[in-house]
Amino acid sequence: MTSSTSSIAPGRPRQPSLAQLRAFVAVAEHLHFRDAATAIGMSQPALSGAVSTLEETLGIQLLERTTRKVLLSPAGERLAVRARAVLEAVGSFMEEAEAARAPFTGVLRLGVIPTVAPYLLPTVLRLVHDRYPQLDLQVHEEQTGSLLDGLAQGRLDLLLLAVPLGMSWITELPLFDEDFVLVTPHDHWLAGRGDIPREALRELDLLLLDEGHCLRDQALDVCREAGRTEGVAATTSAAGLSTLVQLVGGGLGVTLLPATALQVETGRSERLATGHFADPAPSRRIALAMRTGAARQGEFEAFAAALRTELRRLPVRIAP
């Protein structure tokens, strides 16, 4: 039986349906209409009609039909390979769509600032491992400016950083507030005090992180609020909190640490002491940040809620 192409109007789009491709692939695999129809749960007349319509649509004879058997034409052999690839690709497409519909699956690219990563990531990783085992979490530790660029460009999905950011295209999901603590040498006159007035920051030898770290800017804001003048220099001496704390232990000055970093960074040295500010203590807010209107907004909000619960064990005030 030879298919006719006379019914195909000139210029008519030749777009086969998935049902036609599925029927053709089944016949190509079984070389028998009844067996092919059974394999895909289709009636034999419907399957035969689908293959014939496909031949008509393409204007190509795909099968050689005889009273005894079915054979693939040379064109049919080549196109059967392509048809299988199309069906496999559609199957993969549907699997990916199913995964996208399911929350907490697939890849989540999380950006974290350096002054948060070492202290909160253990909690984040434990949460993902225990509650979201199908989530492929990929962590990127970068400074705030780089993280914001990554979020804007779609390189990152979610950020964990200090806020407020004051950007309309970003939605913030507050997690907690944490106090700043004064870290001093063990023999410093403010060591161990629990009622340090902010005004004490006006004349201290203050050590800060390098330019680009948001914690540096936050510490300077605290100092300005305390009345520290621009003329009293703050020494920039370290690229990370660990080095900063070592410099304090060496007697080069004092520094401000967020409460979540305190145990990790000061517990390794007996040369360090801490002092706490009188209420209201200077503090910072940590939040998750996403693109406003993100497709995964509901998932990110649920993640933030779960993370707030896990963070209660830390020395922080959980955001409402």
Provide a descriptive summary of the structure in words.
The protein has 320 residues and is an alpha/beta fold. The protein is 41% helix and 21% strand. The strands form three sheets. Strands 3, 4, 5, 6, 9, 10, 11 and 12 form an eight-stranded mixed sheet that branches. Strands 1-2 form a two-stranded antiparallel ribbon. Helix 1 crosses helix 2 (33-40), helix 1 packs across helix 3 (44-58) and helix 1 (18-30) packs across helix 4 (74-101). It starts with 17 loop residues before the first helix and ends with a strand. Residues 1-9 have low confidence and may be disordered.
Major β-sheet profile: 8 strands, mixed
**Given the C-alpha coordinates, what overall shape results?**
rod-shaped
What is the succession of H and E elements?
A: HHHEEHEHEHEEEHEHEHEEHE
Can you give the helix content as a percent range? 40-55%
Keywords:
alpha/beta; 320 residues; two-stranded antiparallel ribbon; rod-shaped; 41% helix; 8-stranded mixed β-sheet
Q: Layout of SSEs?
A:
Elements: H1 18-30, H2 33-40, H3 44-58, E1 63-65, E2 70-72, H4 74-101, E3 106-112, H5 117-131, E4 135-141, H6 144-153, E5 158-163, E6 170-185, E7 207-209, H7 214-225, E8 235-238, H8 241-249, E9 255-258, H9 259-266, E10 272-275, E11 283-291, H10 297-310, E12 317-318
Parallel strand pairs: 3-4, 3-5, 7-8
Antiparallel strand pairs: 1-2, 5-11, 6-9, 6-10, 6-11, 6-12
Helix pairs in contact: 1-2, 1-3, 1-4, 2-3
